[in-house]
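Why should sequence recovery work at all? Because a backbone constrains its sequence more than one might expect. Tight turns favour small or flexible residues, buried strands favour hydrophobic ones, and helices have their own preferences. The token representation captures these environments compactly. In the example below, the structure is given first.
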């Protein structure tokens, strides 16, 4: 059996600050990630491209503005749409300061103006870690209908936008906080983090005929 390829350190994406939530297009040529100061202060989204000479120097995706934060980027496999969270003011609530889900489209001349996903998906608290799989939006949020802390939610995509979000059932969600749910390409294996005391542990679960298996911490 051939050995698995060794992990490759993308040194250009590493800095003395916090660098996290990297997302790469399916062709491996575009990477986005978030960079922040301690405590996720002044978080911004950066993009870099792979050329025949290696990775380009990371550049802020949007013009920096100290009035808000952008974080948790996720790039669709075709590299054409970016989902992320931001404290930007929304069309309906200019004074809103919590993290909502936004998206931007890649164009020939750069990226479109970010679009707020609307108040149907975004609630009164923070939304985190958005990803799209098989026309389902997954993200984390805390609300009174959840199991406790942050819970992973899903909202179905439609031509008119997104349906009402609903928390994933147990055993995915628990009394602890869960976030950053991501699926394997075949949709049968999921990774996410769960709060365990003062630690955050990656968990894995697999989908079978009877639903998701009990999540287990990665060894």
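From this structural description, the recovered sequence reads:
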């Amino acid at each position: 059996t051939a050995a698995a390829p060794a992990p490759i350190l993308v040194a250009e994406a590493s800095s003395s600050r916090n660098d996290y939530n990297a997302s790469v297009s399916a062709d491996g040529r575009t990477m986005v990630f978030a960079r922040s100061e301690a405590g996720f202060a002044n978080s911004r989204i950066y993009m870099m491209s792979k050329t025949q000479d290696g990775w380009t120097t990371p550049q802020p995706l949007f013009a920096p503005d100290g009035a808000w934060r952008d974080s948790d980027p996720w790039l669709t496999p075709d590299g054409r749409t970016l989902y992320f969270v931001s404290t930007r003011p929304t069309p309906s609530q200019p004074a809103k300061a919590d993290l909502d889900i936004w998206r931007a489209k890649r164009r020939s001349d750069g990226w479109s103006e970010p679009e707020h996903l609307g108040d149907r998906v975004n609630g009164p608290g923070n939304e985190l870690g958005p990803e799209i799989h098989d026309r389902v939006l997954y993200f984390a949020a805390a609300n009174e209908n959840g199991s406790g802390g942050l819970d992973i939610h899903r909202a179905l995509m439609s031509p008119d936008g997104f349906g009402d979000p609903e928390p994933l059932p147990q055993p995915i969600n628990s009394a602890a906080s869960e976030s950053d749910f991501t699926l394997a390409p075949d949709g049968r294996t999921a990774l996410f983090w769960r709060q365990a005391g003062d630690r955050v542990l990656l968990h894995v679960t697999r989908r079978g005929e009877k639903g998701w298996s009990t999540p287990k911490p990665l060894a």
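A few observations help interpret the result. The CA atoms of residues 92 and 119 lie 8 Å apart.
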